[in-house]
Structures are given as C-alpha cells and as structure tokens.
Amino acid sequence: MFEKLADAVNTDEMLVKRGKNCSLTLLVSVDDSEHFISIESGMVTNIVSGQFLMRHWDLAIRASQIAWSKFWQKHPEPGFHDIFAMNRFGHCKIEGNTNILLSHIRFIKDVISKPRFWNEG
Amino acid sequence: MGKLEPIVGRYITLEEEGENYRIYFEESGNGIPLVCLHTAGAHSSQFRHLMCDPEITKNFRIIAFDMPWHGKSTPPVGWQDKEYRLTSDFYVAIIKNFIEALDLRKPVIMGCSMGGRVVIRLAYELGTRLLGVIGLEGSDRPAPWYDNTWTNHPDFANGDFCVGLVSGLCAPQSPDEYKWETLWHYYQSGSGVFKGDMHFFRTDSDYTHTSVAIDTKLCPVYLMTGEYDYSCTPEATVDTASRIPGAKSVIMSEVGHFPMSENPEVFRGYLIPVLEKFVKGEKNEPSSS
After folding, report:
1. Which of the residues A98, A106, A107, A109 would you substitute to probe the B interface, choosing the one with the greatest number of B C-beta atoms within 10 Å?
2. pTM of the complete model
C-alpha cells in the first residue's frame, strides 16, 4: 500500500500544486505498525515503515487494519468514508499539530485517500 | 440552441433588525409554496435540480432564497466593519419576513443542515401558518464533530478550508459532477460566512425543549437524512423524530449531507412520496417516527 503512495501523489500534478505550501511528517498508524510519510512542498519525499521509539511526526492518524481497509475501499461504507467520519465514530484517532491539518485540509485528505484510486474494492 | 431552464431569479429588499437586506431568490413551478433553505456557507443553487423537475413543479411553487451574506444576496451596508454571526432569532425572523413579503399562504418549509435545524423552531412557533416542514439532514440540537477552537483558526474563513471540511459529507456514490458542484458553492462563499453560520449551528440552536410541544397535526414534520451524513447523523435524526410526537424520519441510502445537490436523482425518489402527502393533505399520526 505505502510503497505505491509516493508515486501516486507525486505524479498527480494538481494534487502537488494544491500542496505546494505543505510540508510535514504524517504518521499513519495501522494497528501496531507505523508509516512516517515525509512531505515537502506537496511531494512525498520519503516513507519509512516499521516500529520506532519516539520518532518525530507532526500529524498522526491511527486506526486498525480493518478500519483502514474499509476506508480505502472505492465506495466505503458509512462511517469509514472520511477521516472525520472515522474520528467521529471512534474508528480512528487524529493527533498532533491540527493547525497543519486545518491549513492543508483538502490536500492531506486527498493524500490519505489516494489508495482508493488503485483499490478496486 | 441554448437550453433555457424554467428557473426565474429576482431580488427583494427586507428590513430586519434595523438593516436593509437585499435578498436574491429564485423560483419555479406552480401550486403549494415550497420554501427551500440552503446549508451553511452555501446558497440557493443547491435546489436547482428540484426546480427543473416537472414531477415536482407541477404541484409546487419552489422558492429558494440566499440568506443575507450568502450567494447573490447583498451583505448589509457597512459589512466591511462587521463580523457576520447568524443567530437563531435573526434566522427565524428573516424567514418569516420573506414569507410575509411574498404573501406565501401555508407554505411547506424545507431546509437542509442549518436549514434542517431551523425548521424545528419554525414548526413550533409558526406551525399554524405552515402546511408542514421538511428537515433535510436535520436534528433539534447541535452535535459538534470537531473542536470549537477550530472556528478561530485563520483558515476557517477560507473557501478552500470549507471545501476540505465538508467534502467527506458527500456520499461516495454521488456523481462526481454534482458532488463537485456542491463543493464549488463553498469555494464561492464570502470569507467568514461559513464561520458565521456555525454560530447558529453549533451554539445557538438547541431546540430540544420545544420539540415535544410541536403539534404535527397542525404542522407535519418530516426529517430526511442521508446515511453518509456524519454531521447530522441518522441516529440524531431518529432521536429528534422520537421527541416530536408524530414526526416521521426517513433515512436515505447512498446519500450524504447535501441530498438535493449531490445526488438529485436518488433524492427525488425519497422526496416525491413525502411531497405527495402534502398534495393529498395528509396529516401525521401522533405516534410513530
């Protein structure tokens, strides 16, 4: 999943344009495994996956494998169709610097939703 | 040849709370007045599909107006030195004013989101003068899904932020064309208008104390909510209907927070049977929801 994310984001010209002022380390947690997605000026520059001790991140979205697999369906079921829906119904936790999220809300949501476009589900 | 739609737009100036408000409204159809109230930070174009649906316009005069500060309605003189903040009292007053100014007799009021909230108060206060109300994505009290401090973030005033915030409220099944047109309305909004509407929606619209006193024999209440709406959830809608004796709730599949604009084809399938009840003059039975 994550190995394809950088290409998918970086080749989406309009998405990169929308994120040109966005730089952050986004932590996506899937059960116990952590994926640190480095974004510089709207492009994914690095993704490091594994389990780490106090590695830096700016914004974290944590959910179970089951929740993410539902979220990344092409047509997710109600409650799993948006990170705010997942957060509201307790399917994910959004933590960290929410100011970054608010300033780049559409871009960050589009990045995290990218796997839907290659998921036939 | 161009394709001319039956929708006609006009302006009316209303005085409210000592200010003159030049209000834009559009209408289509003949028959029972159906006054439509748009969502926060948007405008009356959300109802354009209904206005071009002959199955509906043959029995209803559909009228939708842009709230002050929204769409093509002009903000009050001196807006540049004011902060827009919608209150429950002003919202009700401007709707009453509009209905009276157009001399609309026994209209049905149908509002979405914040419009779906205010119809609860309208049913309570104006019930004898209405044929009924339809709350789309409506409930009788606020249930915030993000922290109130977010409204103070500088980006909260921007259209791009508003689009990002509400985009997930559309159902994944809604046609892209209509989903993005719905979101375009948020890009069009004036700076800070969505935030001003949130004052009403998040802090000044708890109507739970009056819900139980609504007489649905005089003013039938229908609450219709999309299954993908996590702002006004289906559970909140059913809860609200349970507090209003005789109110009916309808949960709509594969629809989100903007049924009339994000998926008009699916929505009409749910709405037309409800509208037919008004055409036939049916009243709600005071027991079920």
Report:
1. A106
2. 0.96
